[in-house]
């Protein structure tokens, strides 16, 4: 038996009503929650010049779905990420807007290749960026907004895993110098490879591997390890960020986690939903390049809710509020039902059937009756 | 002076908060109105195989922004239209769903080239498709749903211009045979070229050019012209379709209008907003190919609201409901304000200023006070 040719390219798919409507409900809830915190929505285009999406970064450029634009004769790419576009908006069109500048977004992003864990090449990205500050107060706000948005969309309780992307640099440039480049040390700590640390002559860093896990316990380990106090400010910052969300999320710490935080400055976090293996969001502090020689500080987060929607997030049974309107029904009564939140399904011919068309009710002479 | 290089390719643009949020409000209103009529939302992907988007139709394929997919090694294209994708869904994934099948959609489409009238290459398309029937009842429903959706989004009053795409064929194959191909005759009628009609020996069609304009008057002309009654069913159909929307839209008729209706079967309509030159939507009856030798009847409409949003549709002044939260504010009070529909903007430092951040109010010890 030969397989029928696929109707859609690998990694691209149609969303049928149950999923498309759940996606719409989840997106609305997330965006409304971010807007309630003063984040104005922006919508960058689906495609841009390759340079503005990937810059000189080979890793990013490799991941772009590129094509030649017949109009500009230049290489464009579909956006693999919206955060970078929001940074471009903040430092160009909105360069003159007062800071801190709060922006949010929701839209589809497209990746060149799928991963085994995430077969989708097109996915929904929703997020918020606070531009003009990466202070502790800014980081605390962005984490709180993330939790509020997740809550509003019915996502959770989540686990927030904090990280400190510059912790190794602070130590290596301070009390614990090493003979190898900092990046090498960071890599082995990220891989949690105790043997490699010993081989690098970085045994002093071994206790860092224990400062991982439930937040309070890991913070205590980190504090005990940091005998010189070079990490004091970072530890205090994490505690300040964690304070308003204690009890609303499970908090963990992995101070040397680097994977996915290559662009973060001093603070990062990942969001997990227990029982859902893959990460559903991440965020942190970063710097937006402004021209050749300037940067603007920012904090933000991105959410990728598709896998949760596939598992039923945002779903609701519509049949209960779906009513069949027989031939010759009163148009004004039908309009009244819609205004009351009913979905009406009008008969077009005698052949139309209420139940086949998904209606739990039909409009009788005295109002809705069960179908 | 040299011009700075453009940040974005021609025809692609960023939407800042005022427009992005207006777009979101307009989209929600349109989709909610269509869903209230029982139309389930679907979301096809942004890109597909070129064949499923353009088929063998050269005119369509020329308009596609194409690229080679490194994964499938095949040519993909960005969707220039969502209607065709919905037809594909209806006849593949939803081939077994009961008919009539009601689907709606909202999403971005991308065109290869902009037109002078519409410089945008990426635009919002919102619409509804009723699949499994192109009866008069189906056409009447789809026009009513369009008017309800436009109303809900605050668009209008609109002008609906009806057309009858097969009227010339009915006449030429019936009482008014011509020596030239029907397409040639249709072309000259579409161009309203009386001289050309005379040259084609088609003087008998001249009165059709007068059956154009305000609906009732044009219908009367058409009826007077149709002495053999071959157009009776079409005229009755138009009157049935027009009946429920009289008083809600300005109705006109241009029975030989073909431009933009190449795919429509017996019925089409264009939607205009007075003072906005370009068409903002169109619809009609059509046939979806199913395999090699079968078709499924459908009616539907598509709206392109971007130009209206650019002119202020869906806008509202948020400053009135935007409140500044000074340092040290009570988090529970802030959450209460958000629950009441306020947008809160929290101070991150002493430097933050309520009015600079767009807040009409600030939270005082006794509640909101004008900023």
UniProtKB/TrEMBL annotation, chains A, B:
Domain Aminoacyl-transfer RNA synthetases class-II family profile: 24-326
PROSITE patterns: AA_TRNA_LIGASE_II (PS50862)
Organism field: Sphingopyxis macrogoltabida (Sphingomonas macrogoltabidus)
UniProt entry keywords in alphabetical sequence: Glycosyltransferase, Transferase
Keyword NAD: no
GO CC, any one term: cytoplasm
InterPro entries to which the protein is assigned, alphabetical: aa-tRNA-synth_II, aa-tRNA-synth_II/BPL/LPL, HisRS-like_core, HisRS/HisZ
Any coiled-coil regions, as ranges: none
Biological process, per Gene Ontology: histidyl-tRNA aminoacylation
Lineage per the UniProt record: Bacteria, Pseudomonadati, Pseudomonadota, Alphaproteobacteria, Sphingomonadales
Protein name as it appears in the record: Histidine--tRNA ligase
Domain of life: Bacteria
